[in-house]
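Sharing in case it's useful to others searching the archive later.

Someone asked me privately for the predicted structure of Diguanylate cyclase (GGDEF domain) (Modular protein), so I'm posting the question and my answer publicly. Question first, with the sequence:
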Amino acid sequence: MNPSQLKPYIIIIIEETHPFNFSSFVNLLNQLNLSFVIAPHPESAIFHAEYTNPDIILIPFDPNQSNPQETHHKLKQAKITQDIPVLWMNNYSELKTQTPQALATTLEALNPFVNRNTSLNTLPTDMTINSLKKQVQLQQELLIKLQAENQQLKRLASLDDLTQLANRREFYNCLQEQWQSCQEDHLSMLLCDVDFFKLYNDTYGHLAGDYCLQQIANAIETAVKRVREPEPYLVARYGGEEFAVILPHLDLENARKVAEEIQLQIRSLKIPHRSSPIRSNITSSLGVACCVPGEKSYLQELISAADQAMYKAKSEGRDQVKVAQGIL
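And my answer, the predicted structure tokens:
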């Protein structure tokens, strides 16, 4: 995501009772990509803070017409705002309609109001505009980092640990999404089962079995990518030694060709399987089904049809592709 699209700060602007033109300043805040809300008095700011969780409270004011001590006292007395940094700013009347560069320069030159008289020496340590901008930048960087970490967690949650393909949960999520996307158009899927895989594990051990599944997963992904990209698809580990492929906007005949490509790719691995009753290498059985999502078709029927086609391939000798009869 482009960092400029982020709006990490919610700034509360407290408007004093006297007339005040915020237009130029609001324009600048928008150019800095800051989210904000304008509150007419401290009580309103406290109310908004409860729902917006602001990062800073910005108070433009005229020291001759406002009471910063009273404002500060009210904000710090309220539990919801007592820990929120406050930025005091004067000379807002100098903000006029200017170019973005000139307006930024003007704002940059404004120093926070700090009255060093005894009557106002209780004001908090002020933050400069530069400090505010630095905080915005840090907040943006933090949000980008958190967003990347969240995406990584989501990605890991959707993957099968062994094969790094989509897991069964992600398969169902994708199938439901494509069911909506393919209304009145073809949606195909296929299921692939590794022939006599239990015998393979018994013969070569589970570590070899895991490596075998990883190679097959890569072979399926390679085959589908070769004939399908740039069109959308999903390859998933359906469970155990079974794999699934979702092929949106693809009819039955072309889905069968994808299945045959997968079968050839798995054969080309030439993974030895001396315990197989049919071949000396690993083979696969595949079932293909297709539907046109609509009022008279159901998602579970598509899965069931592919499953039945796959078991027909297994029951009739394995190492082959079977297609469900017609379009559901």
